[in-house]
Amino acid sequence: MGYGDIKKLVAYYSYEGNTKLMAEVMAEEIGADLLRLKPKKEIQTKGFSKYLWGGSQIIMNRRPELEPFEVNPSEYDLIIIGTPVWAWTYAPPVGSLFKMVDFNDHSMGIFSCHGGQNGKTLVHMKKALQGNHIIGEIDFFEPLSNNQAVAVEKAQQWARELLDKVVGKK
Ligand SMILES: Cc1cc2nc3c(=O)[nH]c(=O)nc-3n(C[C@H](O)[C@H](O)[C@H](O)COP(=O)(O)O)c2cc1C
C-alpha cells in the first residue's frame, strides 16, 4: 500500500493555540484530515483562574460533551492525537474522545504541549488507548512562544516518520 492509500487524521484539543499549531503543521506535512475537539461549553478565561477551572476539571475527572465530529475517527489508518498538559495529564476533551470512539488496533501517534512538566500525560494516554499500536510519541515545550521554528520542524519530521512506519508495515 502506498502513501496515498493511507487515511490519516490529526485529532486534537487546544485551549490557547499551542497544540493547534503543532496539529496543523503535522496535518499539512502528511496530508491528514484535522479534527479539533471542541467542548460544547468552553470557559473563556485566560488569567490565573484558567488553572483553577482546568485543574478542577481534572480533579473531578470531567469528560465534557463535545461538538459533533465531521469525520469518523475510527475509519482512519493513522491517527495522531494531541493534547495540552493539564495538571500533569491529558486535557478533559481528549478523555471525551477516548470515551466516544472505540479505538482498537489502530496505528497511533500521541503528542502533548506543556509548560515544562509533562507529568504522566503520555503514559495516561497510552493506558487509555490500550489495544492500539502507539508507534510514536513526542512532546513540545510551549511551541508558540519558545523556538517556534524548531518545534515546527520537529513536528513535521515526527509526522513523516509515523507515516513511513505505517506505510512500511502495510
Ligand atoms: C488548566 C491548565 C493546567 C495546566 N497544567 C500544566 C501542567 O501540569 N504541566 C505543564 O507543564 N503545563 C501545564 N499547563 C500549561 C499548558 O500545558 C501549556 O501552556 C500548553 O502549551 C497549552 O497548550 P494549548 O495552547 O494548546 O492549550 C496548564 C495549562 C492550563 C490551562
Automatic annotation (TrEMBL):
A Pfam family annotated for this UniProt entry: Flavodoxin_4
Residue ranges of coiled coil: none
Organism: Alkaliphilus hydrothermalis
Protein name from the UniProt record: Flavodoxin
Source taxon at top rank: Bacteria
Transmembrane domains' residue ranges: none
Location of the Flavodoxin-like domain: 8-163
